[in-house]
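The protein record passed on for reference:
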Amino acid sequence: MTRQTNGRGRLFDNVLDTIGDTPCIRINNIGPANATIYVKAEAFNPGASVKDRLALNIIEAAEASGELKPGQTVIEATSGNTGIGLAIVCAAKGYPLVVTMAESFSIERRKLMRFLGAKVILTPKEQKAVGMYNKSVELAEKHGWFLARQFETSANADIHESTTAREIMADFDGKQLDYFVTGYGTGGTMVGVSRVLRKERPNTKIILTEPANAALVSSGEVQERTEAGGPAKGHSAWEPHPVQGWTPDFIPLVLQEALDNQSYDELLKVAGPEGIVWSKKLAQQEGIFTGISGGATFAVAMKVAESAPKGSIILCMLPDTGERYLSTPLFEGIGADMDAGELELMQSTPGCQLG
């Protein structure tokens, strides 16, 4: 039988109206025997990441408050996904965008933002995320630009409370949901979703995860902050890790709400290489394309399943697509030229041989 689609039953006024309503997809081939895992695939957003949500809400909240003026330049520090989301929003709404980004993040992210019309200012990798953050503050103050402040603004978690969490509630309405697993970057997804789950699905256990070699929350060390809530300095527990978008070298103010309220049931660490392994397995055995952060979150979901009661249902966040990791360790060993096996197949028939 041929599959059939019937359309969404609506027309969209602009690309921004397509943000959200991402699907929860069952894992069928690599899932554990005793539990069922679903993934919330945020790559279905127009900018292919969960950060489209906060980008839209930051801009619209600032428009509503009058903080952002027509035609004013927007600036933000980002590892890439928030910058891509902001570039889409600013392009649709007519705001110039400047992004500051540490030079260590993937080249394709820079190109994507520039393709979408943003200017990308690189900062030294030695100064880490705090460096790119401080540069954004300096530029905003000097030029009178609107600073998006994804790491501090209430608009971040609010959009996840009103969209991401509501989608989860609707998709699992009348259905079992035993665990929700997520990492943190800014903390918005964690805080916004936990607000709703704690009230409306209190039996759902919330699992927070972070890189094993950048375990800032696990360390117990309090983050030093400026009066505005930004990082006064980098966190001593941070070390370089391959999970781009996860865990800058400071604990964001947005995440602090979850820490203060103990809005999670368990905190698990995961090694970056595990994220790479599981990202590849999701791609090659499920056809689900996600980045290292998605692979790392899924690795933790698999760990949760090991000790979960039989029949448990686990929902795992997949923050973005794998396509913006082409120049990272995720694609090491993935060649552009034919390997020996491919060459042998090509030569197994006489036609269409390469010179």
